[in-house]
Design a protein that fits this description.
CATH class of the largest domain: Alpha Beta
Strand content: 5-15%
CATH architecture of the largest domain: 3-Layer(aba) Sandwich
Largest sheet: 6 strands, parallel
Number of domains: 3
Helix content: 25-40%
Radius of gyration: 27 Å
Distance between the termini: 63 Å
Strand order of the largest sheet: 2-1-3-4-5-11
Order of helices and strands: HHHHEHEHEHEEHEHEHEHEEHEE
Number of strands: 12
């Protein structure tokens, strides 16, 4: 609500008819003048029109103009809002993704429409198809958002962030290469002599493995299997990205007859909760267990020690999502509008030590 009828302050934009009346000309003459046909009237009339435009602070209605031309120069962004981020996060994935999106919108001089939470978390595709936007970037948090099918079927150019499974035809995408994510984390642990490496996922361990956590599970299994060291009992789940089930996963891990010596966690939040859970049980990180996270998330209240983590380039993902949308506008082949972003940077912290036990 923007206030009651008695208290709300409403901006009333001057209309074309208002300006024509103030200049004492017809609406047709005013319309021609604004379209650049100044020769339609005398110099004196032109001065009257210009004076009326300035007095009434008239600006052409960009929405109406966009509807007439078929382009609004505005893009919709349906992804987590910055206000949704926990107050202790200073440089989250979402913050950096927005940075990449903003870079391209500035480059092309495009406006961005951010949707409210009722739309972001809703199931209705109608808010995206009301003519206010030329294209849409949507962060798909779950495996599949059914709205994508309706949006693409309606002909609205659309790019999904972090969704690559079962995309509708002609839907663009931008996502991180999770095989590279796993490779960086596992190579670091392997180089420290660890062979018994567990993975703490953020999702169900029941196939099919889909979504970001699922792709990291697959990458972990493939990497470990390629070296003949994969053990199914080392695949554990924290149940959610916030790590709500970490304590249960750690209890399960500690009950194994042959415990892992290192843990690769699906994200940094899970990694920090793993460190806290181990510490509460009297174990030291990295003395007893080495830990690697994913995201390079900066928290103001992050526990010591400093986490070794894979830096997922969220800013590049946001930027490439926008560039994929630009390619869709240009009718580029759909393969060029689906962009896998390389993950190449490991941030070294203090949570990896040499393995104490031989394999």
């Amino acid at each position: 609500m923007l206030g009651t009828e008695e208290t709300k302050r409403v901006f009333k934009k001057a209309s074309l008819r208002d300006v024509a009346k103030a200049a004492n000309v017809s609406v047709t003459t005013m319309s021609h003048y604004l379209s650049g046909r100044s020769g339609i009237c005398s110099a004196e009339t032109g001065r009257r029109i210009q004076g009326a435009l300035e007095r009434l602070h008239y600006v052409p209605n960009s929405l109406e103009r966009g509807l007439r031309s078929g382009r609004t120069q505005c893009l919709g962004i349906c992804m987590t809002h910055l206000k949704d981020i926990a107050v202790d996060e200073r440089d989250s994935f979402v913050t950096r993704a927005w940075r990449g999106i903003g870079k391209v919108s500035d480059e092309y001089e495009l406006s961005l429409l951010q949707y409210p939470v009722t739309v972001r978390e809703g199931t209705d595709a109608a808010p995206f198809l009301d003519g206010r936007i030329d294209g849409l970037v949507m962060s798909v948090l779950s495996y599949r958002d059914a709205r994508l099918d309706k949006i693409v079927a309606a002909g609205l150019p659309c790019v999904a962030i972090d969704c690559i499974e079962d995309l509708p035809p002609n839907c663009g995408a931008a996502w991180a290469d999770e095989s590279m994510t796993a490779n960086l984390a596992l190579n670091r642990l392997w180089s420290a002599g660890h062979r018994r490496i567990a993975f703490i996922a953020a999702s169900s361990l029941v196939p099919p493995y889909v979504g970001i956590s699922g792709r990291r599970i697959v990458a972990y299994i493939q990497w470990m299997s390629a070296r003949s060291v994969y053990m199914p009992e080392y695949l554990l789940s924290a149940q959610a990205w916030e790590g709500n089930g970490v304590e249960g996963a750690i209890t399960e891990m500690l009950a194994l007859p042959r415990r892992p010596t290192a843990l690769f966690c699906a994200n940094d939040r899970i990694a920090w909760r793993v460190i806290e859970a181990l510490s509460a049980k009297g174990f030291d990180v990295p003395g007893d267990f080495s830990v690697v996270g994913v995201d390079n998330l900066i928290l103001s209240n992050a526990p010591a020690p400093r986490l070794t983590t894979v830096d997922v380039p969220a800013d590049v993902i946001g930027e490439q999502a926008m560039r994929a949308l630009m390619k869709l506008f240009s009718n580029a082949p759909i393969e060029e509008c689906r962009i896998c972003v390389p993950v190449t940077n490991l941030v070294e912290g203090d949570t990896v030590a040499l393995a104490r036990e031989p394999y």
